[in-house]
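User: Look at the shape:
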Amino acid sequence: MFLTITSTAPAAADLGFLLHKHPGRVQSFEVSVGQAHVFYPEATEQRCTAALLLEVDPVALVRGKGTGGPDGFTLAQYVNDRPYAASSMLAVALGRVFRTAMAGRCDARPELPAQRLPLEVRVPALPCVGGAEVARRVFEPLGWSVEAATVPLDPQVPHWGPSRYLDVRLTGRVRLAEALNHLYVLLPVLDNTKHYWVTTDEVDKLVRAGAGWLQEHPERDLILRRYLAHRRALVSTAVGRLAEVDDAEPQTLDNAVPDGDGDDVPQRSVSLAEQRRGAVLATLRAAGATRVVDLGCGDGTLLRALAADPVFTEVVGVDVSARALQIAARRLHLERMSERQRERVGLIQSSLTYRDSRIAGFDAVVLMEVVEHVDPPRLGALERTVFAHARPGTVVVTTPNVEHNVRYPDLPAGRMRHRDHRFEWTRAQFRSWAEAVAAAWGYSVRLLPVGVDDPEVGPPTQMAVFTRHDAPGDAR
């Protein structure tokens, strides 16, 4: 099982920096099905090729759990193409060996990951259900030129005809991280099977690897069905997750239900989104914050309000979705800003649950309608990212109050306000979480209502304002 990635860019040997693998050494890694080896058949300044060879352990494969699909019957466990043909096993090896490169990080040469390089990818034995046409349909919309030759069953016996395997060569000018993520998703899609049991974890992997390209891919539905082993419930979940991450429209994300609570609503209807932004801005001003990070900024609705207020001297939007950041850049009109204005506003692609030194040292971090989109087991990682590593003087968190949902007549009982919400907290649950976080990381916390504070079910949005104990202005 084998693939190669070749760069013909000037200083082509920089491919070693991007992959975090030295061209002068052969490196080996244990994976669940065997051993993965990385080596460089050629490494010059004009042309550099990195090869990934996966040696499958057939005994480990047979003993593995969750064997299914076309290899699920007894004889096929021993007589199959898995040691030789690219499949989900090779995708797993890619994710294991090139994880940092797939995330677009290069600490030694931080300018390299953003560069589009002339790349050539070769996969000499790729099983493809649907043949060369399907390979072109999934790779060409991503900017690749595709050469796909059918491999004969046996070159010595022509009348046996073609096999289901392709010798695929992809060429294009793309970022290396993009290329690796394309391969990670599409290799098992073309094979149309996986060597392991597909669970909800696969949706997270797909959303992460497909950020910025999968939502708008013309073959998105085909890719989702095959990647998720045709499991309808997982496909539906993935569609919702991708819509939230890549097709960012704040009206459909933050305000999935109508606003308005009866006689107490002012005559001039102010949407809940406007009230929420106003509450956040007022809180930041009261805290004396001038340098602010909007974590999970989406398409930049709050960023625009921050950038329009001269009180805030530096504002940075952070989101995992490249697509959302592109929309934010357009809506902020970055290209029309003066150089002085542009210096105040920054956009960063990063995960909410991974430490990132670029967001450390700011006065305030805002998580506006963000935490409810995070799977509960990952909340601890989010807390460490914000309160332990970034450690701003002020943290502002807003989230829906699930008790208030009964005031929305168009929202069926038991349904959350948005399809991608992982949970919605009651006031007691939010208080419990906020107080535990504050105690754990050396902060004090105040809880405030946003919107009309219903005497029975509370406000539609609840807000927590955390203040670091040693921050300026803290009462302690």
Remarks:
- Residues 65-75, 246-269 have pLDDT under 50 and may be disordered.
- The radius of gyration is 25 Å.
- The domain at 260-468 is CATH 3.40.50.150 (Rossmann fold).
